[in-house]
Amino acid sequence: MELLREMMRLQAERGFLADATLRELATERRVPLYRLQELVSFYPVFRRTPPPKTIVHVCRDVTCAMAGCAERTAELKTAITDREDIELHEVSCLGRCDAAPAAAINEVPLAAESAADLLAFVNEEQSLPVNNPTDKPRRWKCDPYDSPQQRFATARSMHSDADEIIARLSASGLRGMGGAGFPTGRKWELVRNETADTKYVICNADESEPGTFKDRLILEELPHLVIEGMLLAGLTIGAEQGIVYLRHEYERERRALQTPSTTRGLAAC
Prior knowledge:
Shape: globular
Number of strands: 6
Mean pLDDT: 90
Number of domains: 3
Largest sheet: 4 strands, mixed
Helix content: 40-55%
CATH architecture of the largest domain: 3-Layer(aba) Sandwich
Strand content: 5-15%
């Protein structure tokens, strides 16, 4: 994870990962060069050559296919045929099924209604939006807090009662959403009883199954609940470190998690 973060930082800073950059990182981190090359070859987000001025990603997955992505992509390809300053990539999923057919320009997601709208951004006739989380999040029924000042009240009130947390989870019938449907209360109990010295809480926010974008909305508009859920899990099982694994398309959501207002009240837990 640390190597991935550093490679992402270097690419954002330099535009691509040149041979010299990888050798420099391998020496600095004291890891074999082939390990870095394995990561570069596995994750398509990494570039080995200088990027063009504009990179367009269009989704071709099920939801976007049903919304006409093939026709839009064909229009775009025709319009930029002779443009060497533009790359067009068809990708599996951008996590924007609610804005199908989804697209992104220079990693900024767009809800464009037509190929002409996308070309307006490509040709800089229209400025790309700032890729920040919404400053007007909606009020969700699943959020028990009416104001930022009230956040993390559950963790504060239950931080020392692991048995009660597990009992409530078990009574709720909550199950994992990954397909197996394993009872959450039982899972937390098993990990709590594990005798290993070091434990982690990992939030896998790399959803990419077609039609699913619920996690993205939660991360952007309810990031405090994600953090509080991880905090409760850590307090219950005895973990001191949590990791949020985000797909690279979720830059806006990463910023939401790191916004100071998201963790207001966390220090009191």
